[in-house]
Amino acid sequence: MDGERLHLPDRVYYDRDLLRAEISNSQGSAKLIRLCLGTRHYDGHLRQECLQGLLNNGIPWLIPYLLQLAGEYVVEIAEDVANAIVGWDPGTLRAFAMENPRYLATLARRVTSYWNCYHRRAYPDRQGYPGARVLAVVRAAMD
Question: pTM for this one?
Fold first, then answer.
């Protein structure tokens, strides 16, 4: 992100109630960081809660945490990202995409894999799958 390497944790196993309390008791960047960590939590419901707190911030360094969720197996979370991404700044998306082509290629493979393994019946047209819709918005921002 902006020339700096960012490593997102695969999963975190913080106590749910403690994380929620820390999020509630924080403000500004500290709150955003805690919400980002919550998007990596093992509990999908908590991941989705934390996602809701981040979706409409428009802060560029949040993008990797949000896009990562589009390439995971919980389709409801990917749907939230797909619905929100259309309102994000295309210039910010473009800058992130141009700086991270390998990440986006990996994300595209994950999206295809989860669609194929778990969601093909619900979304026979891959382009309607939420993760694919997210990628389409990112690719459109690059044009």
Answer: 0.93
